[in-house]
Amino acid sequence: MRSLRFAILALAALLGACQDKQALLPNRTNFTAAVDDYLAQRGRLCIARYDWPITLAQADRPARAGDALQMAVLESQGLVAHRDVHVQRDGAAAPAREFALTAAGQKYFVHAPVVVATATQRVTHAGDFCVARLALDRVFGWEAPQTLAGRSVSSVLFSYRVVDPAPWTDTPDARRAFPLVRRAIDNAGTLQLRLGIHLGPKGWVADELTD
Fold first, then answer.
1. What CA–CA distance (Å, rounded) separates 196 from 206?
2. Integer Cα distance of 172 and 199 in angstroms
3. Apex CA 194: angle with CA 193 and CA 196, to 5°?
4. Do 35 and 12 contact (CB within 8 A), yes or no?
5. Beta-ladder partners of 151
6. Residue 2: partners with Cβ closer than 8 Å, 6 or more residues away
7. pLDDT per residue over 125-159, tens digit each?
8. What b/e readout covers 159-178, taking b as 16+ CB neighbours within 10 angstroms?
9. C-alpha span between 180 and 131 (Å, rounded)
10. Distance between CA 54 and CA 99 in Å, rounded?
11. pLDDT digits 0-9 by tens, 78-123
């Protein structure tokens, strides 16, 4: 009986080691899992409104017509509310409107770090206003892995599905105010995205996630 138990444990360990090695291979199964995992954690369709409240000075409204239109749409849906305030402009108080999220609007604000990188700086925001979730539709292909900075890297080309979009995003006003949101929703299943991945200790993972 002891020998049999030992044999079973040895076999389980061997199978586990084989599974671990399989996870390191650059193949469709592992790359699909990497994209799935990334979308499960970061797959959200958001509008890049990281910091609230948002203040629009009356004098700036012509130049920020798009911002004003978005705030008007969100307010019409009960997601934000405004109050009249004053801001300093050229040493004097200038009239402005401050838009803050309502309780309904807070439900759309996802508290998860968002990194915005430019050529000169890298800023991490506490969250973003998101209107849908994204899930994997299909993987089209990937680049042959190569070694970069001491690790194996690749990128995966895939399409996505939109899950649970906010109903108000399909209204005519929202379509005009948030064209990028509508483009992302309307092109689900056809628009192709590319995700950078690398080989970590346990398998392939998106570059934006920790190993």
1. 6
2. 44
3. 150
4. no
5. 148
6. none
7. 999 999 999 999 999 999 999 999 889 999 999 99
8. bbebeebbebbeeeebbebb
9. 12
10. 5
11. 999 999 999 888 788 899 999 999 999 999 999 998 888 788 888 9
* Cβ(161)–Cβ(40) below 8 Å: no
Q: Which residue has the tokens 């005519």?
A: 172
Q: Which amino acid is at 48?
A: A
Structure tokens at 95: 């009239």
Question: 92 or 182, which is more confident?
Answer: 182
What pLDDT, on the 0 to 100 scale, is given for residue 125? 93
What percent of the chain lies above the pLDDT cut of 70? 90
> Distance (Å, rounded) from C-alpha 32 to C-alpha 121?
32
**Are 72 and 98 contacting, i.e. CB atoms less than 8 angstroms apart?**
no
